[in-house]
Specification:
By secondary structure, this protein is an alpha/beta fold. The protein is about 45% helix and about 15% strand. It has 2 domains: about 120 residues; about 250 residues, Spore Coat Polysaccharide Biosynthesis Protein SpsA, Chain A.
């Protein structure tokens, strides 16, 4: 028991140190601003893979077209991934507004494991822009999104840009939970990319040079993996251009995406994300994943031990019950995470969500363990397709 408690305390100290490091790494990133006098010169190709998105694609395209970006420097390519609804018909109504429609069924004749990567690959082959920008069909982009990306590229000259994504939330528990969880992940993404610690991003809002895509062989070598069209590609580009992978921290660049509505869909989504971890070539993330996973395992096991173990334990000549020690560790975890997430919530204008944060702790511990385990050994369904 003494050894277990020592392990729990050690993991707690390491975890809290990591979270505090992320706080200072995030706040160290300067906010990027554009000037009204800036006139863009960079040609952009926006790629939107879409499968059964008739409820979202219209709003997505409308938000992009609301951007005041020169039409001769912009093309929007929607790739219809075997949709069984009216997605393609809706997109066709925008053909006259710099929107192109590609039918993936014309390029894929056999079953493959990653339709999204193939959709992007086909679109990149037809794109003409200097920069490739990917987003999802259920996303809404801000009015200065394209201007901000172009200005950032023209000033910083990155080969790859990871940009911020925010999940819209409603009143249901699962939507509030995923919004908080995703916001935390976005804060960590910004911190580690800025510090060159690891390569993290989200395909709903990422940018890369078209030439860089081809220089690293595109998705070659990772094309059989169901997910990873974002982070796996990002790491390939990072290995080629380690100093030219940046995070764009700007409120004008925050893309908003829809929250999943059910617990089943939420776990399918998170398992899909976790499933690419072992395929991830950036091994710097593995110690972090191991630390976070086993720390949460210890936090879950300890209350179970309390049921069978009523004895107290001495630490630095002070007697503690196992329950009181566990509550102290949980409090320290919660305080450290709030310390980190506060400036992140301020950036995403979601500070009101922080009132729910302490109450989400038990669910977050369980979810981390379940999603991590199933990401390794389980299977999931995504876009009406089963993936193992």
């Amino acid at each position: 028991m003494q050894a277990f408690i020592l392990i729990a305390i050690t993991l707690n100290v390491l975890y809290i140190s990591l979270i505090i490091y992320y706080r200072f790494a995030f706040t160290a990133i300067p906010n990027f601003s554009i000037f009204n006098s800036q006139f863009p010169t960079t040609s952009l190709s926006i790629i939107i893979p879409a499968r059964n998105e008739e409820q979202h694609i219209k709003n997505c395209l409308h938000s992009i077209l609301q951007n005041n970006y020169p039409t001769y420097l912009l093309e929007i390519i929607v790739v219809d991934d075997h949709s069984e609804d009216d997605t393609a018909d809706i997109v066709k109504k925008y053909i006259s507004q710099n929107v192109q429609l590609i039918s993936l069924s014309e390029h894929v004749s056999t079953k493959i494991n990653s339709y999204k990567k193939k959709a992007i690959e086909v679109a990149v082959a037809q794109a003409t822009g200097t920069l490739i920008i990917t987003t999802d069909a259920d996303c809404i982009v801000p009015p200065k999104w394209l201007q901000t990306i172009a200005a950032f590229y023209e000033e910083k000259n990155p080969a790859f840009i990871a940009a911020p994504v925010s999940i819209n939330f409603g009143r249901s528990f699962i939507q509030i939970f995923q919004s908080l969880d995703f916001m935390t992940l976005q804060g960590i993404t910004a911190a580690v990319v800025n510090k060159k610690q690891m390569t993290m991003c989200n395909g709903a809002n990422m940018v890369y040079e078209r030439t860089a895509f081809y220089e690293v062989g595109g998705f070659a070598g990772i094309d059989t993996i169901a997910s990873g069209d974002d982070m796996l590609l990002m790491h390939k580009i990072y290995k080629q251009y380690p100093d030219r992978v940046l995070f764009l921290k700007s409120e004008n660049a925050i893309v908003k995406t829809a929250a999943v509505k059910t617990t089943k869909d939420f776990f399918n989504q998170r398992i899909r994300w976790a499933s690419k971890a072992e395929k991830y070539d950036d091994k710097r993330i593995l110690p972090v994943l191991v630390l976070v996973y086993f720390f949460n395992v210890v936090m879950l096991i300890t209350p179970i031990i309390i049921i069978f173990q009523k004895t107290s334990i001495s630490i630095l000549n002070t007697q503690y019950t196992i329950l009181s020690l566990w509550l102290i560790l949980l409090l320290l975890k919660t305080v450290a995470e709030l310390f980190f997430i506060f400036p992140v919530a301020d950036f995403f204008n979601k500070k009101s969500l922080l009132w729910f944060f302490p109450f989400m702790q038990p669910f977050h511990i369980c979810y981390t363990i379940i999603a991590g385990w199933l990401g390794k050994f389980g299977k999931y369904s995504w876009k009406e397709r089963n993936v193992e």
